[in-house]
Amino acid sequence: QVQLVESGGGLVRAGGSLRLSCAASGRTFNSYAVGWFRQAPGKEREFVVGKSWSGGSTSYAEFVKGRFTISRDNAKNTMYLQMNSLKPEDTAVYYCAAAPGLTEASRLGYRNLYRYWGQGTQVTVSS
Questions:
Q1: Half-sphere exposure of 45 toward its Cβ, with a 13 Å CA cutoff?
Q2: Is residue 8 within 8 Å of residue 24, measured between CB atoms?
Q3: What is the β-pairing status of strands 121-126 and 10-13?
Q4: What gap in Å lies between CA 51 and CA 53, rounded to an integer?
Q5: C-alpha–C-alpha distance, residues 109 and 49, integer Å
Q6: Average pLDDT, whole number, for the chain?
């Protein structure tokens, strides 16, 4: 069992930056792929970025390429999402998630492969 807790959300103006953190507890984190998803009001939860357990594979949604960066610190059982050049359309609740043993970059975006989820953190970008 893995418990995930996000932090770092908040209100920021368009063009600004935020860094989200996701702390894992319960089991060692480094055998899981990790990912960030988001859900805006009235919309489906969508994939943002994922990283394989080894760190060798990373996949980004097109709408965040060049603006968001995922990283992980297995020693601290924590992963991060650095978000730069934020836009109002990035407003959503952001969720971190973990998938056991997922390695292929092509599969990192499949929501149903993620077994563990955090409670979400709100990110609001004002225009």
A1: 17
A2: no
A3: parallel
A4: 7
A5: 7
A6: 93
> What is the per-residue pLDDT for 53?
76
Residue in the block written with tokens 């978000």: 83
For the chain, give the percent of residues with pLDDT over 90.
76
Instruction: Map tokens 């805006």 to a residue.
Output: 40
Rg of the chain taking only CA atoms, in angstroms: 13
Across the beta sheet with 3-7, what order do the strands follow?
Answer: 3-7, 18-25, 78-83, 68-73
* pLDDT (tens digit per residue) in 38-92: 999 999 999 999 998 777 889 999 999 999 999 988 788 899 999 999 999 999 9
Q: How many residues does the chain have?
A: 127
